[in-house]
Amino acid sequence: MTSADTSATTGDDAPGDWRLRPLQSRPGFLIRRLHQIHVALFLEECASEGLTPVQYSVLTALDQMGQVEQVALSRAVGVDRTNVAEVIARLERRRFVRRRLSPDDGRKKLAVLTDLGRSVLKRVEQGAARAHERTLAALPEARREGFLDDLALLVESNNAISRSPVSG
To answer: CA 13: distance to chain centroid?
Structure first.
């Protein structure tokens, strides 16, 4: 009798015991791999502009939100404040984003998308769309929206326990 057989007969393992599943079939592994694959596709499709997916998210959020405090931006894209500040600094060096101190509170920094940033975002949109399509390409068309709905449900229901919850 194997240890798996023993534990099954003694009731030590709960149904769906992940220890018994191959690593490659566990949700965390699959989600991490899909993320790696999507990043590779995004970088390939958007290589001409040299943007990362996180930089693209920040530019997109700024385009949608207008001038915004860096803390609110970090919450919108689900990236911690320190990392979003570093991303904004890199984007500012490329003149895609402009930062300034808040006139209402000198401790707060505001970020805004520049015209150059807006034009880069526009140039990247088709490549980003192709990366999204390629990420989902293996799924039959009829299952894609359901898959995205399921992903959104998982993210939303676990958002509060994230190190960088998304809000707004």
So the answer is: 34
